[in-house]
């Protein structure tokens, strides 16, 4: 059974709250992300995705956008590098320069490190999705 997103987030937050993790205090009373004693921080990927990783991610983008489902994600994995992630469409499709386009968010996990990429894809004249932008995700 798949839990609704809100329920899943509540379960994650309850799990984190009861997991006993602690944060180190620094001079300014906040844990710094580069503080080796801080726990639970997700480290950035040590290097950018390989071209092979991006090929698997591009296929996932095309698959999930072709389905057109509102709340779906498409996992991907590169067995050669061990990298994996998922692609999730954001918002609704929109028109740009006469083409149907859609924004998406993609995760990239390699070993214990994780990063996020944001992108946009538009349908080509042949009806296939082509990625036009792909860059590190800037939250905010």
Write down the domain tally. Answer: 2
| Cα distance spanning the termini | 32 Å
DSSP strand count: 5
Q: Could you tell me the strand content as a percent range?
A: 25-35%
Q: What order do the strands of the largest sheet run in, or round the barrel if closed?
A: 1-2-3-4-5
Helical proportion, percent range: 10-25%
* Largest β-sheet summary: 5 strands, antiparallel
Rg computed from alpha carbons, rounded to a whole number of angstroms:
18 Å
Number of helices: 2
Order of helices and strands: HHEEEEE
In one word, what is the shape?
A: globular
Mean pLDDT: 74
Looking at the chains present, what oligomeric state does this protein adopt? single chain
Low-confidence stretches: 1-45
SS-based class: alpha+beta
How would you describe what is shown here?
The protein is an alpha+beta fold. It contains 2 helices and 5 strands; from the N terminus they run ααβββββ. It has helices spanning 5-17, 51-67, and strands at 74-77, 84-96, 99-110, 113-123, 129-136. A 5-stranded antiparallel sheet has the order 1-2-3-4-5, with helices on one face. It starts with a helix and ends with a strand.
């Amino acid at each position: 059974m798949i839990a609704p997103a809100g329920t899943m987030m509540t379960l994650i937050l309850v799990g984190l709250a009861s997991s006993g993790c602690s944060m180190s205090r620094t001079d300014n009373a906040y844990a710094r992300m580069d503080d080796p004693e801080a726990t639970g921080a997700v480290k950035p990927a040590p290097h950018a995705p390989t071209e092979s990783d991006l090929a698997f991610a591009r296929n996932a983008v095309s698959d999930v956008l072709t389905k057109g489902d509102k709340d779906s994600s498409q996992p991907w994995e590169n067995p050669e590098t061990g990298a994996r992630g998922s692609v999730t469409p954001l918002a609704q499709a929109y028109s740009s320069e006469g083409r149907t386009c859609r924004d998406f968010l993609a995760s990239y996990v390699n070993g214990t490190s994780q990063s996020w990429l944001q992108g946009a894809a538009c349908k080509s004249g042949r009806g296939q999705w082509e990625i036009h932008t792909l860059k590190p995700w800037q939250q905010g």
